[in-house]
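Appendix B, record 7
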Amino acid sequence: DDLEDDNKLAELWKGCQFRPLIYLTLLCHDLAKGRGDDHTNKGAAIVLEALPRFGMGEWAERVALLVRLHLLMEQIAFRRDITDPAVIQSFVDQVGDEQSLTALYLVTVCDMSAVREGVWTSWKAKLLSELYSAARNVMRHGLDIQRGSVAEEVERVAPLLSEIEGGRDRAEEFIRGMQAEYRRSVPAAEIAQHLEIVDKLQLGEMEFRWLIEQKAGFVILTLLTHDRSGLLADASGLLIAQGIGIREARIFTRSDGVVIDRFRCEDIEPTRLSIGKRLEQIPDLWSQLNSGKLHMEELLTRFQRRGRHEQNRVGVVDPGVSVHPSSDGAVIDISAEDSIGLLYRLCSVLSDEGFEIRSARVIGRLDGILDSFLVQDPDELLKAADQIEELKLKLREAAEQKC
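Structure tokens (predicted):
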């Protein structure tokens, strides 16, 4: 919880034997910010040249490393799947050792906390803490490549299915049908609950189910239903219309067409209407959307009329889109000025263009948002440069559009 994360930071600072490293990094980390886009590498070069001239050559290489990496920790914690061993190993390889990791963690917290009120949140603290702990564990004990195996997950889930006949066999069948990312990121108790709901969906006993769990500083919402075109766009639109901001989304699609979409969210209601009441309304509103009795534009308009967040920006980012094709799809990163319904519009574009969104990560920054989507490309549209440019244009237009 929040207190646990605060205590961890306090203990790290109290036991820190290299405070000059942190002070110097905070002093130097934005030295080159006015010299073009690549201010991290340029700043590191300045540090390597300047610190020896001030009689602090012993700190030069360490400070230069942290200046070069000072945005890395937040980028990975907020935009990548930190339950993926490959992501953690790559991060560890870049940071190098535990002293640099601890220094980077403390610098990142200080940097984000000092921007302005509201930038540092319990959700961000939790993700950074989780990344720090995972990376430190790898540095101390090595990477456990067997983590999240089917057999391990069956052992965790099966005891929770005592009321289901053949619970162990059913657990193994279910878990084998899910992606490795699902096994890594979803707690055993939730997997057991998902299994029971999926059985009911397959039998036609229900059309969908929203699971809602309020935690300290954030909310976990999970939608289980049958897949259809535009599903993520509609789900994200509904949540924002209820004043629930999505900060992380993991999308899991089974071979039988059942989807398990898990959202980690924050309360962003501008008028601070009761979050409990707004969460209770989600299943009924979803039912109305599916039946056509309610339209998304109407919901978003209601939210807009309740009053928007007033954000004191130091600047506004220009919409930017990068597409990185891979063997089975692409990673699409989008930066833009934040606006009501932005995630809904971006998901709508991807759905309309025929891309299946496998996962998404969303982060709000001082000057806008950074959204990252992992999409599958069944028609291999992103193999061609002109198709990539066309998609980037449509995403930029969606990012610039205002509700």
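Remarks on this record: Strands lie at 208-215, 218-226, 244-253, 258-267, 320-326, 329-336, 356-365, 368-376. The longest strand covers residues 244-253.
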